[in-house]
Amino acid sequence: MSTGWEWADVIGQFATVIAVGAAFLQLIGARAAKHRDFENLYVQRYWNLMDRFDGNPWTASSIDDLVDSDRSRVSAYLQLCEDELDLRRNGFISTKTWGIWVDGMKSQCARPAYKEALNSMEPGELPALRDFIDNGNEDPLSMNWFRKWWTGIGNEGRKQATRRSVADVQEYEAAES
């Protein structure tokens, strides 16, 4: 026959398992939040750079169409892309964020002024960006799914993350109209 104390022990052990599980999930969540905070620094760096353009580098047909300060900002943007590729390779950028950034980098680096600026640099400069553009190596991260999950960067594939991101934007736009 069971006593009340035996049931109290079982309930206590069950509560301990639940508490340990919750603490574990909080640890993973804290790691993901750390990545988001870090990524926000690079988003701010991007917008600080883009907001300082005097002309319109997106429509410029050549780097020569830009003023000197904008030419240096195009080079700074290319360096920012190189930094982001290095960060992703080292596991500091989440899979969901990378899915958004990679499409933006491809689009912007395909514009004439950016492409021309990259081609005018020394061949050894910005090797990760050149590999990304020339060879289509979209994700420099090589990490198994468990390690991605454990570090908090997410284990979705790029296409899954991008599809979800696009769907989130479309859902938001539909709600706004």
Q: What report would you give on this structure?
A:
The chain has 177 residues and is mostly helical. The protein is built from 7 helices and no strands. Helix 1 runs antiparallel to helix 2, helix 2 packs across helix 5 and helix 3 packs across helix 7. It starts with a helix and ends with a helix. About 3% of the residues have low confidence.
In short:
Helix content is 73%, strand content 0%. The protein is mostly helical and 177 residues long.
Q: What key attributes describe this structure?
A:
177 residues; mainly alpha; 0% strand
Q: Termini, distance in Å? A: 65 Å
Class of secondary structure makeup: mainly alpha
Oligomer: single chain
In what range is the share of β-strand residues? under 5%
Which overall shape is indicated by the principal axes computed on the Cα atoms? Answer: elongated
Helix content: over 70%
Overall number of strands: 0
Q: Total domains, how many?
A: 1
Rg, please? 23 Å
Chain-averaged pLDDT: 84
Uncertain segments: 160-164
Give the biggest sheet.
none
Quickly count the helices: 7
Helix-strand topology string:
HHHHHHH
Detail the topology: elements first, then pairings.
Elements (H helix, E strand, L loop, with lengths): L3 H48 L16 H22 L5 H15 L2 H9 L6 H9 L9 H7 L6 H19 L1
Helix pairs in contact: 1-2, 2-4, 2-5, 3-7
